[in-house]
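Protocol step 4 of 6: structure prediction from sequence.
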Amino acid sequence: MHPIIANFPKWRTRAAVILTCIVSICGMSRIRAAETVTIKDYMTPNGEGSSWVYSRSEKGSKPGSTATRITVVDDHYLFRFPIGGMFTSKKLEERGTWKNGVFVKFKGAKRDAFYTYTGITDRYRLIGTDRPDPDSPDKTKGRLRFQNGFGTGPTMKIGEKNRKRSNVFRGNKLLGYTFLTMELLDKGTVKVPAGTFRDCIHLRFTIGFDKDAEVAEEWWARGVGMVKWKGISGESAGISEALVSMDLKEVIPYSPPGLELTGEHLYGASSNSGYLQFPPIFVPGTVLEETVVLKNTGSETLKGVSVRLFDNPDFKMDPFEKRDLQGGESVVLKVRLIIPEGSFEANTWMEIKCGDSSVEPIDVSMSLYHF
């Protein structure tokens, strides 16, 4: 056996859950081999808190005597490109039993195992996986990392096969290299204890080399996730799992970070500059007050947001201490202009900045003239 393969899980290698891009099952309806499948329709991020329970069958055990539960413990975007995005999805795998519609986990039989990523143009990549050894005294040393990641493009054709090579590390130690081959075998209907799913993709993945390779197949249903898994050869041979229960949570859509300033007499501030036009009232001593709303339009916290007016005795603003703005949070800013005696020219500008440099600053000029 190749030295890399010897380090792969004795709990079956769930590459699709890791990769969010691999799948397989028995008895699916055949369709035309030329059909193109959009992978992201089946492998999109799962909402945090979503869970799936699978009845597990393996050699030497009573069918259904054990079960596996997969739970999304963290799902969020790392950053956004103009033409795509990157998110990370961290999943927890637990072993237990499924009795009378309830999952009961075994003590200590869990691992943070799966990391999934998508990048520009919705490509999916497997970056790494923890070694599935719940009794490992040093779990950090059990983590496997693929240097360049294994992945697939946004679409695959029925019958298409992709093979990629990558160096494999445990921590910072290079173990060698391996291959991952992914093949989209079919598309059709799958029946499992949780129900009948009519739109599923079936993939086969192979990790390693020739006769020593670890081979498994998985089936994923559109909008649901993986519904069935089967080990073909290697350590996973003879093991299979089928979905018995699921609890799907809403996926929070990505909202790019940004600051937005709005107000009744504010113009052009959404393009990072603008002007505030005060009503033309010229009675000396009159106080003109304008209310503007500053909002974090993204889902991520913006750190160190500051607002200031440059010196001009005719303009005043309520104090604004530098602060962090949570995603979607708004604050109200009030600017006052005191009308001076006689002809006047009053102008200043407001500067809005973000200390972590994640957004462009906003500059708003303010002026009122009377001659």
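Step 5 (inspection) to follow. The first strand starts at residue 36 and ends at 38.
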